[in-house]
Specification:
Blueprint: E1 23-24, E2 36-42, E3 49-53, E4 57-58, E5 64-68, E6 71-78, E7 91-93, E8 104-105, E9 117-123, E10 130-134, E11 139-140, E12 146-151, E13 154-161, E14 174-176
Antiparallel strand pairs: 1-2, 2-5, 3-6, 4-5, 6-7, 8-9, 9-12, 10-13, 11-12, 13-14
Length: about 190
């Protein structure tokens, strides 16, 4: 019936809490020249581990996340105590906008004796795109794609910028001939 003295204190810590669901900061969507999206994790903890579905790359120092285009992601945070958060809201990464092919000039109408400029219609014309000429000067009909005011004796190239802001490679050269020379009025010889 002998009773020992009491043991040293046995301290039971408070149950560790799971971190809150992580939050994606402002998303940078893919662009014409960049095939990935990105964002920085809000309230990033460098001691935590972040798991993405589908997988993504996280910079362990900054919390910047790089994601493939055309996918929807969620992610969780596992803190230093091993507790796992609920999943984040969906992070939607758009498909990379496509760059248009180099534009093509249709059949060229060359200058004539009475018309000082050339013209053509853009093949596969897109009325939502903008066409830029080098050198400048030609005009493009926004409905038909007809290009006019092509100066005689000039070689042009042009590019297409689509609604997403992607710019094509330059077209092949569009050569506008010199205007044909109209002969002088004939003169009568001696009568």
């Amino acid at each position: 019936g002998c009773v020992s003295p009491a043991s040293a204190d046995v301290v039971i810590d408070v149950q560790p809490g799971a971190p809150s669901a992580p939050v994606a900061g402002a998303i940078t969507q893919p662009s014409c020249g960049t095939a990935t999206g990105s964002f920085t994790i809000t309230s990033f903890e460098s001691t935590s581990t972040y798991t993405f579905t589908p997988s993504a790359t996280v910079d362990a120092a900054s919390g910047v996340v790089t994601l493939a285009a055309g996918a929807t992601y969620t992610f969780t945070e596992t803190n230093a105590l091993g507790c796992i958060s609920a999943a984040s809201l969906d992070v939607v990464i758009d498909a990379q906008p496509s760059t248009p092919s180099a534009p093509v000039a249709g059949a060229i109408t060359q200058p004539t004796c009475s018309v000082t400029t050339g013209s053509f219609t853009i093949a596969n014309f897109d009325p939502t795109s903008t066409y830029t000429f080098t050198p400048t000067g030609p005009t493009v009909d926004g409905t038909t794609g007809e290009v006019t005011l092509l100066a005689a004796g000039t070689t042009y190239t042009f590019t297409e910028e689509n609604a997403a802001g992607c710019v094509s490679a330059a077209s092949a050269d569009v050569v506008i001939d010199a205007q044909p020379v109209t002969p002088s009025a004939p003169t009568a010889g001696a009568i």
